[in-house]
Amino acid sequence: MKNLLLVFCFLISLQNYAQDSSFSGFLKVEGKNIVNDKDENVVLRGFGLGGYMLQEGYMLKVPFSGQQYVFREHVQELIGNDKTEEFYSSWRKNFMQKQDVDSLKKWGFNSIRLPMHYNLFTLPVEDEPEKGKNTWLEEGFKLTDQLVSWCRDNEIYLILDMHATPGGQGHDVNISDRDPSKASLWESKDNREKLTALWVKLAERYKDEPVIGAYDLINEPNWTFEEGKNKNGTEDSQNVLLWDYQKKLTEAIREIDNNHIIIIEGNGWGNNYNGLIDLWDDNLVMSFHKYWTYNTTESIQNFLDYRENLNIPIWLGESGENSNVWFTDAIGLMEANNIGWCWWPLKKIGFNNPLEIKVNPGYKEILNYWRGEASKPSEEEAYEAFMQLAENTKIENCIIHHDVIDAMIRQTSSKKSMPFKNIRIENQGELKAVNYDLGREGFAYKDSISANYHVSTGKKRQNWNNGRYYRNDGVDIFKKENAAAYDDVYVGDLEIGDWMQYTFTANDAGNYMLAIRVSSQDNLGRAIIEINGVKLETLEIPSTAGEWKWINLNTIPLKKGKNQLRFIAIKSGFNLETIRLQKQ
């Protein structure tokens, strides 16, 4: 419950940003806009539930091929079929609960994209008892019904996204759980007929449900239909089968359901729209996906042109996996151009999303075993570890990254910084280095590398937080060796010009002794303290031979009430854990 209490405390800071009255009836297309039944423009702000119905290996930190079926085979090897079924049942039960949807609403989001795995709704073609028939499974429908109910309670739109199609829709096998030894969606008419039947079944079930915002037909197709082109379809010039089949899917759905928006996706992970000359329906939305590119108008100009030329709304259906700076800039770009957006994912093992699933010691040992670095656990040990991992997916057991939420909602429209934690200095107080203010780069902190733009630069991926821990800004935060607590961390890799700002309250005005807890090797470090906009003299930071030591520096003046302190590195070579202030 502690983490949930933190969530609701944090909501106070977002109350001016979380108001959204756009939920009203079925969404529909009106020219280049998405509107509600009052003809009000709707900007979708949402999250994709990656890892819920469909796991990808990178979300679980596995060292082998990332398809869900491969992960499942490894689980089965350790605990057997029955216990594997129990693990997956608990995983899906815990991963999404009403509290998750409640929190998304309170944080300021108005939509959810549900990545569906077809095998929760129907059998694979090769497993059907009777060829050409479809066996319907209840679990997928029940899970979707449950999510519909929670979204209805919160007036949040739910977008159904076919993330894993029968056979799989591309050569990037992880995203669709594809087995490359079997026929793909595009190589098998039977697979396409099964997908059509599934969309018809979903349309029959939800045709009168206004909380369903849209049907996203096929996530990220990445398959060439033209000889000699890039296998992922990025170079195809016509995409004939892709457009013909999405047209047929639309026609099949329209036999039953004329209420819902249908979202189409291009080839090459959703972005290649070559060959799309005319639209076949008047309630279509064009989706594009954006990762690791510059956040300039030029980076989305082709989709702005499609919107203008085809008279169709565009929607950023998937984005994320980057830093807070990138999130704020990308969302700001979308909103300036009246483009809705959906981030990926809500939760995983990893720090750059609102909710981080903790790695329990037992699962860490399993990962080590899979890497060849530990002995095989017993069946009972492995079972306990997997069940604890499933328990860790509950929101109350996740680490909540308020900085990510703040960057996506508040910072997109405000340059104001605010305290990461409420800190009051009485006679003595401490500022943990990692708890610098919430806010944009240049206002709450400064770091030389603050985002990953490798698709635009053509260079290797860049880490923004080199420690990949605790916060998602450019500041490099590392976990201490043998740390006993989540916040046993420090700021490292400080470079010349890096700085962090801390806003706090002092009970009394006066001079306060400044001390810092640092570690350094042989280098002599230097820093400047700026207090309430006034820079003080340069501070010499001596070597500590790699140990953590308190260094008393000098006194600084504080005023009664609110104060802002900036710690500015002007010579690197040291790590910073804590700043201590003691009244003289």
From TrEMBL:
GO CC annotation, single:
cell surface
Pfam families, per database record: CBM_35_2 (PF18099), Cellulase (PF00150)
Q: Recorded GO terms, molecular function?
A: beta-glucosidase activity
**Residues making up the signal peptide according to the UniProt record:** 1-18
Q: Where in this chain does the record put each Carbohydrate binding module family domain?
A: 475-569
By sequence similarity, the record places it as follows:
Belongs to the glycosyl hydrolase 5 (cellulase A) family.
Which biological processes are named by the entry's GO terms?
glucan catabolic process
Q: Which InterPro entries match?
A: CBM35, Galactose-bd-like_sf, GH, Glyco_hydro_5, Glycosyl_hydrolase_5
Keyword vocabulary terms for this entry: Glycosidase, Hydrolase, Signal
Domain named Glycoside hydrolase family: which ranges? 87-346
Keyword presence, Hydrolase: yes
The protein's organism comes out as Christiangramia echinicola
Q: Which Gene3D superfamilies match?
A: Galactose-binding domain-like, Glycosidases
The name on file for this protein is: Cellulase (Glycosyl hydrolase family 5)
